[in-house]
Recover the amino acids of this structure.
């Protein structure tokens, strides 16, 4: 079967509701294995024998009010548990909200913000730092409203959400850098697990009622780490999230399908 005629998700389209087909970006299992990318029938049958022991997730776009509401409820739950404030997810043409589902349960969400004349959320506290990147010719995207239900396979869900956001930013929209505001207590996690570096000093963030630090990472670095570690058994001592994401081959397959519609 030629590449142009391969089914997008590996199973017959007639088995899916139209909305689920159109809006599900990828289906994967934890431990990581994409089960919906171009499997032939024999591979699909073999894959089904291991489904019982794995958690299955789907990454979807929060494309309507109902899905934005479900993402907002998880954000409010996880932020309020830590004593933070949190606004809900709203429709914005410069923002892409991704939601991870485990059956009918929302397991995680993140919003990708693309720089535009309207600016980024982080400009409220860190406009000078982001303007420095812009002045260097960088195309800056941000990650906001990240929440993962800790009762799920949170590392796999977090890695998948981050990876799909990266695909949208890097491959689809050609952005070059990520920035993210995090609580100071989480700085070490983002540095160790993803390779972020601190760009802005600690400030009080009125949106969540807690201190924040601005972190930055070049997407070229992410691209190299995915090529090295994505979807592989991590070498001894490797603690990053990259092995829990998709392989480079799967990443490029997902990007082609998103670019195709």
């Amino acid at each position: 079967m030629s590449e142009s005629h391969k089914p997008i998700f590996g199973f017959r389209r007639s088995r899916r509701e139209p909305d689920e087909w159109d809006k599900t970006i990828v289906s994967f299992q934890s431990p990581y294995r994409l089960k919906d990318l171009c499997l032939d029938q024999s591979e699909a049958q073999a894959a089904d024998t291991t489904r019982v022991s794995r958690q299955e997730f789907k990454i979807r776009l929060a494309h309507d009010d109902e899905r934005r509401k479900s993402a907002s409820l998880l954000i409010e739950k996880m932020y309020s548990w830590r004593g933070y404030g949190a606004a809900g997810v709203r429709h914005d043409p410069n923002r892409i909200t991704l939601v991870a589902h485990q059956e009918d349960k929302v397991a995680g969400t993140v919003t990708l913000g693309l720089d535009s004349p309207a600016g980024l959320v982080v400009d409220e506290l860190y406009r000078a730092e982001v303007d420095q990147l812009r002045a260097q010719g960088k195309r800056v995207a941000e990650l906001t409203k990240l929440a993962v239900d800790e009762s799920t396979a949170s590392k796999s869900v977090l890695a998948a959400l981050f990876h799909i956001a990266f695909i949208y930013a890097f491959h689809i929209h050609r952005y070059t850098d990520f920035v993210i505001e995090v609580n100071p207590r989480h700085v070490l996690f983002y540095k160790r697990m993803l390779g972020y570096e601190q760009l802005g000093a600690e400030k009080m963030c009125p949106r969540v009622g807690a201190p924040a630090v601005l972190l930055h990472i070049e997407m070229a670095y992410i691209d190299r780490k995915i090529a090295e570690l994505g979807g592989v058994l991590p070498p001894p001592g490797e603690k990053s999230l990259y092995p829990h994401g998709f392989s480079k081959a799967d990443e490029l397959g997902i990007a082609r399908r998103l670019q195709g519609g």
Remarks:
- The chain has a mean pLDDT of 78.
- The domain at 59-259 is CATH 3.40.630.30 (Aminopeptidase).
- Strands lie at 24-30, 33-34, 55-61, 95-102, 105-114, 140-148, 177-182, 197-205, 210-218.
- The longest strand covers residues 105-114.
